[in-house]
Amino acid sequence: MALTGINAYRKGNLKQDIANADPHKLTLMLMQGALDRIAYAKGAMERREYEQKAQFISRVVAILINLRDTLDLEAGQEMAANLFELYDYMINRINEAHITNSLQYLDEVSSLLTTIRDAWVQIPESAKQEAYEIQRQKQQAI
C-alpha cells in the first residue's frame, strides 16, 4: 500500500519536472530514462522474467526512436546525421538483445548512450541559450 503512494508521488514529481524542463533537460531526462530501463531489462533478463524484459526493451526503443526522430538534421548537419545513425544502430542492437537475450548488446548500448549523455551534460549554458534562441526565431518565422 505504501509503495503505491510512493509511486504516485514520483509520477507527480516527474510530471512537474517535465512541465518545468527546457529542451536540453528533457533530452537529458529521456537519455537517463533509457539507461534506467536498459538496467531494468538486464535484471529481468538475468531473472528470466521475459515479459518484464520485453516491456523495458520496448520503452528503451521508444525513447531511442524519439531521440533519433527529433534531431534537427538541418541545423545539426553532420553531427546530427551521425547521431541519427548512432541512435539507429542502438535501436537495432536493443532489438537484437531482445531476440537473443544478450546482456552484451544491452551493455554496448548502455555504454554508447552513457557517452552521449555525459557529453550532453557538458554543453555550456551559453551554447544552450544560443540554440534556444535560434529555435525560437525559426518558430516565429513560420
TrEMBL record:
Q: CDD domains from the entry?
A: FliS (cd16098)
- Its main subcellular localisation, reduced to a broad class, is cytoplasm
Keywords from the UniProt entry: Bacterial flagellum biogenesis, Cell projection, Chaperone, Cilium, Cytoplasm, Flagellum
Localization: Cytoplasm, Cytosol
The organism's place on the tree of life at top rank: Bacteria
Pfam family of this protein, just one?
A: FliS
From the UniProt record, give one GO term of the biological process aspect: bacterial-type flagellum assembly
Name of the protein in question:
Flagellar secretion chaperone FliS
Q: Give the organism, scientific name.
A: Alteromonas alba
